[in-house]
Amino acid sequence: MPELPEVETVRVGLARWVRGRRIARVDVVHPRAVRRHLAGGDDFAAVLAGRTVTDVLRRGKYLWLALDSDDAVIGHLGMSGQMLLLEAAVPAGPHLRVRFTFSDGGPELRFVDQRTFGGWSLSPGGAALPAEIAHIARDPFDPAFDAEHVVAALRRRHSGVKRALLDQTLISGVGNIYADESLWRAKLHGARRAAELTRPVARRLLGHVSDVMVEALGQGGTSFDALYVNVNGESGYFDRALAVYGREGQPCRRCGAPLRREPLMNRSSYSCPRCQPRPRRRSV
DNA sequence: CGCAGGCCCTGGTAGC
DNA sequence: TGCTACCAGGGCCTGC
User: Fold this and answer.
1) Residues of A known to be catalytic
2) Is the CB of A35 under 7 A from strand C?
3) How far apart are alpha carbons A6 and A223 in whole angstroms?
4) What is each CA distance from A109 to A86, A87, A101, A195, in whole angstroms?
5) From first to last of its 284 residues, what are the pLDDT tens digits of chain A?
6) Which pLDDT belongs to residue A80?
7) A62 touches strand C (CB under 7 A)
8) How far is the CA of A116 from the C1' of B15 (A)?
9) Is A160 near strand B, with its CB below 7 A from some atom of it?
10) By CB neighbour count within 10 A (0-12 exposed, 13-18 middle, 19+ buried), where does A9 fall?
């Protein structure tokens, strides 16, 4: 489940391996992978052929290949997407969705995605920042990330604080895993109403969000199964450092109480019943 | 407008 | 053994 640290790891890998190369051919193996490109897979491939990748950029969980035509190819890993760089001779796996081959004959870029939540689309003129993702807020790795602005926006939200953290138009890059980890560090239950957080508490929470993702980036990303693999095909291993996510029934590392799992927004949330008491008035 | 919830999708696993 | 039900969840979409 790639979140900001994992996507940044992929971006760095793509920049290293794809920047400056000319796309010779694109094969859309599964149409769902380009469902956002309404003109279809053939058109997607035709537009990209002959273009050179000038840079690989990212905002939140979206990344894009900037092209010499000033257009962009936006990519999202979804739940299970992988970017693999492989020699052409390596046989295709069962979940290959899109294949990019390059005119230099070097390694292909293969987008592999079991659950098909991820995909690609074209953004005309979007090399600097695709209009399609301009509504996505800056993420904590962005030099222009304005924490005080996010604190103020967070404190105007009437929804639960976890829902607010997962809202990519408020702060981007945070997913279910790092939201839970951040809330545990901040000793806050995710159903606490965001608007009820004091300014210092909101600041502290955002500090934890940033810390936990910076730490994950340093570890090379999170992996729970073989689904997340970085661009060179190596699994991340940050899972060993997770304090709450996936640890139902195991002792809280702070107080020893058995961690709980409960549904929130129709997905699992992990927290400590003692460190993160449920609010009387719950917001989701 | 803000907010909440449903849906998409596949493979692994639990349960019968 | 083979079937069904359920779970994982990011982001888009709809409806209130």
Assistant:
1) 2-3, 61, 267
2) no
3) 9
4) 7, 9, 7, 44
5) 788 988 998 898 899 899 999 999 999 999 999 998 988 999 999 999 999 999 999 999 999 999 999 999 999 999 888 898 999 999 988 889 999 999 999 999 999 998 888 999 999 999 999 999 999 999 999 999 999 999 999 999 999 999 999 999 999 999 999 999 999 999 999 999 999 999 999 999 999 999 999 998 887 654 444 445 555 555 544 555 789 998 899 999 999 999 999 988 888 999 999 999 998 877 77
6) 87
7) yes
8) 28
9) yes
10) buried
A232 within 8 A of A86, measured Cβ to Cβ: no
Half-sphere exposure of A142 (CA within 13 A, CB side): 18
Q: What is the pTM for the complete model shown?
A: 0.93
Please tell me the predicted confidence (pLDDT) of residue A63: 94
The answer to whether residues A265 and A180 touch, using CB atoms and an 8 Å cutoff, is no
Q: Nucleotides of chain B within 7 Å of a protein C-beta?
A: 2-11
Query: In this structure, what are the phi and psi dihedrals at residue A211, rounded to the nearest 5 degrees?
Result: -60, -45
The two structure tokens encoding residue A240 = 């060993």
**What domains can you pick out in chain A, each with its CATH number?**
4-133 (3.20.190.10), 147-271 (1.10.8.50)
User: Does strand C come within 7 Å of the CB of A214?
Assistant: no
Report the distance from CA of residue A118 to the C1' of nucleotide B8 in Å, as an integer: 11
Beta strands in chain A (DSSP E): 23-28, 53-59, 62-67, 72-76, 81-86, 96-102, 108-113, 119-123, 260-264, 267-271
Residue A266 and residue A54: Cα distance in Å, rounded? Answer: 40
Chain A 181..200 CB hits on strand B (< 7 A) = 195
Q: Report the nucleotide nearest the CA of residue A160, measured to C1'.
A: B3
Q: Is the CB of A61 under 7 A from strand B?
A: no
Q: What tokens were used for A74?
A: 């936006």
